[in-house]
Write a structure and sequence with these properties.
By secondary structure, the protein is an alpha/beta fold. It folds into two domains: 94 residues, Transcription Regulator spoIIAA, CATH 3.30.750.24; 60 residues, no CATH class. The chain has three helices and ten strands; from the N terminus they run βββαβαββββββα. A five-stranded mixed β-sheet has the order 1-2-3-4-5, covered by helices on one side. Strands 7-6-10 form a three-stranded antiparallel β-sheet, with no helix packed on it. Strand 6 and strand 7 form a beta hairpin. The radius of gyration is 16 Å and the shape is globular. The relative contact order is 0.13. Zinc ion binds next to loops.
Length: 165
């Protein structure tokens, strides 16, 4: 899917929505004068490769005055947050991310948006998940987390993420 950067507003703050594949074809527009709270919605990012990662890091480095808040981060992006040093810009916050579940009963994968500070709590240097299984699938279903919990949420415990209070 072709890469696109859309701009909008959320609660009187700038909202940047990234769409598609972040790869060698992706062109990031110059947005160097940003300051204050900026929200970056990633739900429509379909993939990111190593060249895209470099472009991503350079782009966000060019907006040091922006307080970046990442929302709706898909699994492809969460993986990079965990693996790539410096992928999350300094001082940025991840507000919400997709959490993959699998329900054997329905034979279905479901990506559920969890919010840091709501379903994802950081307590005593550990990530605690607080959610109602019934809200993920049907009655009598036992949807299981489809990722390794200690690995998937590890980036939230690194210094980059200021406390999600
Ligand atoms: Zn189910």
């Amino acid at each position: 899917m072709a890469f696109e950067v859309q701009q909008g507003q959320i609660d009187n703050n700038l909202l940047i929505t990234l769409v598609g594949d972040i790869d060698e074809e992706a062109v990031f527009p110059a947005l160097t004068n940003l300051s204050g709270d900026v929200y970056v919605d990633l739900k429509a990012v379909s993939s990111i490769n190593s060249i895209g990662i470099r472009a991503w890091i350079m782009w966000f480095t060019e907006m040091p005055s922006a307080q970046l808040n990442f929302i709706n981060c898909p699994k492809a992006v969460v993986m990079q947050m965990n693996m790539v040093e410096g992928f999350l810009p300094q001082g940025s916050q991840v507000k919400s991310l997709q959490v993959p579940f699998y329900c054997e009963n329905c034979d279905e994968e479901k990506d559920i948006i969890f919010h840091v500070g709501k379903e994802i709590l950081i307590q005593g240097g550990q990530v605690q998940l607080k959610y109602n299984k019934d809200s993920i699938c049907g009655d009598g279903c036992e949807p299981e987390l489809d990722v390794n919990e200690s690995k998937y949420f590890r980036f939230l415990l690194n210094g980059g993420q200021s406390q999600a209070a």
